[in-house]
Design goal:
heterodimer; A: alpha/beta; Purple Acid Phosphatase, chain A, domain 2; 6-stranded mixed β-sheet; elongated; B: alpha+beta; 6-stranded antiparallel β-sheet
Chain lengths: ~400, ~900
């Protein structure tokens, strides 16, 4: 019986511009997760570790990261680690693996699968590696896998997409879904897809151990594989490995927004570790309170507790006029006229401010030249709402 | 507000109180000459209504009557807001202010001091000055309606301060509240924090600008980084290409090396065979050399034998031929001797004939010379005669002085001049006409001499003389007449001088008269002509270029030569003349015949001599040939014996050795042919191919080295770039860009909102102000058109009612100072009347026109008076003028300032 850890797609050095304010933390989390994987392997006394490609996000990551990764891999010692170059870190002339850190003085437990030659990892256990030598290729990486006969456990290691309709590109190292069976492999350790995925009994994607974005599903995982012996079906345990939580929530605002705030706070407090959570929150519905201070308060509260907040209020209808602005507009003809002008502009731009019409004179229209000048200045409908917000602030100030 | 009365005291020229009471609610004309105090009265109103009672400083002090310590005191009765008031105000040392209201029975104080001032200011919508007198812009309603006589007279008023609201209220328009102003001020401040006021572009210090700058900086860095990454990709691509190339080259090199090895082995085998061939060839060459040498010896021995035989046969033939030639030679020698003897005879005969012919020629020549000497002697004689005559003539000419042509001419002219002067002297001289009663003979003495003349009754004596005349009349006496004329004397002196010169010249040539001199000259001319003719004759006799002496010498030479010829011929000259002339022709024929015969004989001799010599030469040759043959036979025999010495003198032995050498040579030839047969036909091509492959292999190795260098260089580049962690830097920068982008978008959205608010609110404000200024503009334009009668003119006002310009037709507004002063003051009046019409809609207002129409023509002034009369229904108008007659058409109250006080 052998037991090994199958992981892939560490994507160390990944860009995180979609969460730019915490990008460094997101990158650091990937290293933390990698360390944890090594610790798992060592603690559970696994026979070896397979990393099926994309340890690095790119060939041009900085040396510091390469050293950090080597140092992390050495933490697994004496458990051997077999690294397969993937499409993000292929064996091109500029490969990370061509650097000195991977060429000289590498820890004895770290093995780079540079060729397609079978590698005996244990007596009776052979890895059949298919390292990627380019970022893209229409060739099937498993095609050259030639299992070693004679009751040897053959484990294929490749990086590419299973040729499942709608889930692959023709130049994305397409792999026949039945490759494991067709080649007579005991296990096909794949990498490339970031979600945990199983095809048949012997083909597995372990998923990226650390999620890379809000859209990913079933990521932050690794595969703990046990094979009893030659020909035996592998037993695969999906283990959760992610350091950071990536949450995407939608919350309706209806009636009193304070209820919404309360509900959201409860939900956040229910998170295992809010400080390690990145939240994309979309509010929708209608806020008729006319007082949007709750929104600011909510934002402040969430930002204070979460690692990162992406608050989307574009589908939340709010009253653009604060109560004070409304009152002042009723008693101040000039202010009322200005608001009416802004409302007329919003109408002209195709996004009328319905709530403003009560205050402003709906018959107001703007001079065509003025509208033309405004359009030439690149003013957008959202800017009118922003202007009303600023006006409300000015009224508060005066 | 309008006035009822005005009392001033202690104000400039008005020391004592002066009161103007009973103001008409319509037109009031205050008139008087210049400096009578009209404007001072208006200043009384300004101080009362528009200045604090406790105002201090130099400005108010200057209102004191000059040289006094009096203090300005002003009392005014007026109606405002439908109520009648009295204002009692003192300044400087008597500073006070009391405002009283008419209650029906009298005035009741409403306020005093500052409170009273403020109430009045409120009525006038005026602003209180901080220090000193108020400025006209602070006068409120008065600023709009009063047209004082100062430097601002032609400046249109603007809607400033409190009067704006008052004005808006009067017109019933939307009101700008102070809150609105504050609102706008805050927006303007926020706008100016982001945009420049002038061009509306982003301020450098604004957050949006800085965010954009930051964004641009990151963009640039990103571009640089992406370019670097792209370069890495290019290097990778190049590296892969070069690696593939390197691999291909290596494969090609391996193929070439294998091929080169095979070819070189073939070349080595070929070279071994070629060496064998070369050795066989050398041996064959040696065998052939021996064989050829023996063969040559054998051939030579045979040739010598044959040669000896042939020479013997030839020698026998030569001996026979030599005997035959000897006979022929002897016969030819005999013929030649006979021919040479005949030739010698002919030569002797020819010598004699030529000598006889030569003598005949000499004699003929001597005779010709004799004739020539005779001719020369005759010409010499003639020449000697001519020469003697020439010498005689030249002697004659040399014996006496001879005048030249010029001298003759000068003498002749002098003579003629003397004659002419004498005729003139005579003309100037004496003339006597003596008529005698009887016949007389008398002596007449003149300059020409003395002569006797006869006179009588029928024979008068007519005498002309120069300077003197003497008549000796017998029996009567001597009558001498002398001329006293100086001119005559002078003339006579000149004549005497000329005569003296003439005589001197004639004496030099030895002649007595001019004619004689002329004759001497003519003679000399004739003699010279003859001399010339003689010279010509001598030349002809002597011949051209010859002289007498040369001719004499020639004759002598000819005579000497003749004597020599005669001596040679052995005869004298006389004998020569006596002998007949020689006959040369037969001698010439004889000589010619002999010459021809001699020539023929010479040819015969030559021919015979040649035959003889030929035979003699052939004899020698044959002899020599025979000797040669004998020598040749002897040499051949010696050589044959010498060549056969090596073989013991046996030709058979030589022959046997020759056969053996030939056999050895054949064997060597067979060996060589066998080796050559074993050599491949394309041995050269194989070697060339081997060389070509070797060269190509070396080229490939060099190319591989170049590719390796490239690979090393590219790998170094990659190592360098990998060390930079470009992707990681790009990741960081892209995230930074995202943050900067968000920051910029936020700032930009805020800036756009501010820009939009600024635009919308100012636009709205301008619209509101335009709604106020529009009717005023129309009213001013209407009034101005009525005054000027120019319908195309209209007025443009700014939002604060200040004058923007005057439009003519559809052209852009022009500044007011483009127009005449009269037009300007008319427009100012029109503005006051228009503003008064709007402000007076609720309450009668006071309009003051201080000397407003001084530059206006009568026509326009008349139309203005009509407008003033109409306006007076709602306005109180005070007109100050020094020309009251200009306003005589107006109904109203008149105040003569000179009659006041």
């Amino acid at each position: 019986m052998i037991r090994f850890l199958h992981t892939a797609d560490w994507q160390v050095g990944m860009k995180a511009r979609h969460v730019a304010p915490v990008a460094a933390r997101v990158r650091e989390a990937r290293l933390e997760t990698a360390r944890r994987l090594m610790e798992i392997a060592r603690e559970r006394r696994l026979d070896f570790i397979i990393i099926a490609g994309d340890v690095f996000e790119d060939t041009q990551v900085d040396n510091k990261l390469a050293h950090q990764v080597v140092q992390i891999l050495s933490l697994a010692a004496p458990v051997p680690v077999y690294i397969l170059p993937g499409n993000h870190d292929p064996l091109t002339p500029d490969a990370v693996y061509e650097r000195r850190v991977f060429r000289e003085g590498l820890a004895p437990n770290i093995h780079l699968l540079r060729t397609n030659q079978p590698v005996t990892v244990l007596p009776g256990v052979v890895l059949l590696p298919a390292p990627n030598r380019a970022k893209n290729s229409p060739e099937d990486p498993t095609e050259k896998m030639a299992p070693v006969p004679g009751g040897v456990i053959n484990i294929g290691v490749a990086h590419g997409s299973l040729r499942i309709e709608g889930r692959y590109q023709s130049d994305d190292f397409p792999i026949p879904p039945e490759a494991a069976e067709r080649r007579g492999l005991d296990y096909l350790a794949l990498g490339h897809w970031h979600s945990f995925f199983q095809y048949g009994d012997r083909t597995f994607y372990p998923g990226t151990p650390e999620p890379t974005g809000f859209e990913e599903r079933d990521s932050g995982t690794a595969a703990l594989v046990t094979i009893e012996g030659y020909g035996a079906p592998p037993r695969v345990e999906k283990i959760k490995t992610g350091t950071l939580g990536w949450e995407t929530w939608r919350q309706e605002v209806h009636g009193d927004p304070r209820e919404t705030v309360r509900a959201l706070k409860l939900r956040v407090e229910g998170l295992a570790s809010p400080g390690q959570t990145l939240l994309r929150l979309a509010l929708y519905g209608r806020d008729t309170s006319g007082d949007q201070s709750w929104l600011k308060e909510l934002r402040d509260w969430l930002e204070a507790r979460l690692l990162y907040l992406d608050l989307d209020t574009t589908r939340l209808a709010t009253q653009p006029l604060t109560p004070k602005l409304q009152n002042r507009a009723r008693s101040q003809p000039f202010l009322r006229a200005a608001i009416a002008d802004l409302a007329a502009l919003a109408r002209s731009l195709g996004q009328p401010l319905e709530d403003v019409e009560n205050v402003a004179d709906p018959g107001t229209s703007l001079d065509a030249d003025l509208i033309d000048r405004i359009l030439r200045a690149g003013i957008k409908p959202g800017d009118v709402r922003e202007a009303l917000g600023v006006l409300a602030e000015v009224v508060e100030e005066v | 507000m309008f006035l009822h009365s005005l009392t001033v005291a202690g104000l400039r020229r008005f020391r004592n109180p002066v009161a103007l009471t009973g103001f008409d609610p319509g037109i009031n004309i205050i008139y008087g000459p210049n400096e009578c105090g009209k404007s001072t009265l208006i200043w009384g109103l300004i101080l009362a209504f528009l200045n604090r009672h406790n105002v201090s400083g130099e400005e108010i002090a200057r209102f004191r009557p000059w040289g006094t310590a009096l203090n300005p005191i002003i009392k005014v009765e007026f109606t405002a807001g439908g109520k009648r008031y009295r204002l009692d105000k003192g300044f400087l040392d008597e500073a006070r202010c009391t405002l009283s209201e008419w209650t029906g029975g009298g005035y009741q104080d409403l306020a005093r001091g500052k409170a009273a001032d403020e109430m009045v200011f409120q009525m006038m919508q005026a602003q209180m000055a901080g220090r000193g007198l108020t400025k006209s812009s602070q006068w409120g309603l008065a600023h709009l309606l009063w047209m004082p006589q100062d430097r601002e007279r032609l400046t249109a008023p603007a809607l400033t301060g409190n009067v704006q609201d008052y004005f808006r209220e009067s017109l019933g328009s939307t009101i700008f509240t102070p809150a609105d102003d504050r609102l706008l001020a805050v927006i303007d401040r926020k706008y100016s924090e982001i945009y420049t006021q002038k061009r509306g572009v982003l301020q450098a210090r604004s957050p949006v600008h800085q965010a954009r700058q930051r964004l641009e900086e990151i963009k640039e860095q990103l571009a640089t980084l992406r370019q670097a990454l792209e370069q890495v990709n290019q290097v990778v691509a190049e590296l892969e290409t070069q690696q593939a190339r390197h691999e291909a080259l290596q494969q090609e090199l391996a193929g070439l090396r294998a091929r080169e090895k095979g070819l070189k082995e073939q070349v080595e085998a070929i070279k071994t065979l070629q060496a064998g061939c070369r050795q066989a060839e050398a041996e064959l060459k040696t065998a052939t050399t021996i064989w050829e040498k023996l063969k040559t010896e054998w051939r030579r021995v045979n040739e010598l034998e044959e040669s000896i035989n042939l020479a013997n046969a030839e020698m026998n033939q030569e001996k026979d031929s030599l005997a035959s030639l000897g006979n022929a030679w002897q016969e030819a020698g005999q013929k030649l001797g006979a021919a040479e003897e005949r030739l010698a005879t002919l030569e002797n005969e020819l010598g004699r004939a030529r000598k006889a012919l030569q003598q005949s020629y000499d004699r003929q020549q001597a005779r010709e010379r004799l004739v020539r000497i005779g001719e020369l002697s005759r010409r010499l004689k003639k020449a000697r005669q001519v020469t003697a005559r020439i010498a005689a003539l030249e002697g004659e000419l040399a014996r006496q002085p001879l005048p030249g042509q010029e001298e003759v001419k000068t003498v002749t002219e002098t003579w003629n001049r003397i004659n002419s002067l004498e005729a003139e002297a005579r003309a100037m001289g004496l003339s006597i006409n003596f008529r005698a009663y009887r016949d007389l003979e008398l002596s007449v003495t003149t300059a020409a001499g003395r002569e006797k003349r006869r006179v009588g009754p029928d024979q008068p004596l007519l005498l002309d003389a120069t300077d003197r005349l003497a008549l000796e009349i017998p029996g009567a006496g001597l009558l001498e007449v002398r001329s006293g004329s100086r001119d005559l004397h002078k003339l006579l002196q000149e004549i005497a001088g000329l005569r003296q010169d003439l005589e001197h010249t004639l004496a030099a040539f030895g002649v007595a008269s001019v004619d004689e001199l002329q004759e001497r000259y003519n003679w000399s001319v004739r003699q010279r002509t003859e001399l010339k003719a003689l010279g010509d004759n001598l030349g002809q006799v002597l011949g051209p270029g010859n002289t007498l002496e040369a001719m004499e010498k020639q004759v002598l030479t000819e005579q000497t030569a003749l004597a020599e010829q005669c001596a040679a011929l052995g005869i004298t000259g006389e004998e020569l003349l006596a002998l007949p002339g020689p006959d040369i022709t037969p001698l010439k024929v004889q000589v010619k015949n002999l010459q021809e015969e001699e020539e023929k004989q010479k040819q015969v001799v030559t021919q015979l001599r040649q035959q003889f010599q030929d035979l003699e030469r052939r004899l020698a040759e044959e002899q020599k040939k025979l000797e040669t043959l004998q020598a040749r036979i002897r040499a051949a025999r010696e050589e044959r014996a010498r060549r056969l010495e090596a073989w013991g003198g046996s030709a058979a032995k030589l022959q046997a050795e020759l056969v053996a050498a030939e056999t050895a040579r054949s064997n060597k030839t067979l060996t060589l042919e066998e080796l050559k047969r074993r050599l491949p036909a394309n041995a050269a091509e194989i070697e060339q191919e081997a060389n070509r492959v070797e060269k190509k292999r070396e080229e490939l190795e060099r190319e591989i080295l170049v590719v390796r260098d490239k690979l090393t260089s590219l790998k170094t580049q990659l190592d360098l770039s990998s060390g930079q962690g470009l992707y990681s830097r790009l990741a960081g920068l892209e995230e930074e860009y995202e943050l900067a982008c968000a920051e910029y978008q936020h700032a930009a959205r805020y800036a756009r909102a501010i820009w939009l608010l600024h635009l919308i609110m100012h636009n709205r404000r301008d619209q509101m102000l335009n709604s106020l200024t529009g009717p005023v503009r129309q009213e001013v334009s209407d009034l101005f058109q009525q005054i000027t009668g120019r319908r195309e003119r209209s007025v443009e006002l700014n939002a604060d009612l200040s004058l923007a310009g005057l439009k003519v037709g559809v052209a852009d507004p022009q500044p007011l100072d483009v127009f005449s002063v009269g037009t300007q003051e008319q427009l100012m009046v029109a503005i006051r009347l228009a503003l008064g019409r709007f402000l007076g809609a609720g309450e009668r207002q006071l309009v003051v026109l201080d000397d407003a129409l001084v530059n206006t023509d009568a026509g326009r002034r008349s139309r203005i008076l009509d407008l003033l009369a109409a306006a007076a229904e709602k306005l109180q108008i005070i007109i100050l003028t020094c020309h009251p007659e200009n306003y005589s058409g107006l109904k109203g109250r008149l105040f003569n300032v000179e009659e006041l006080g």
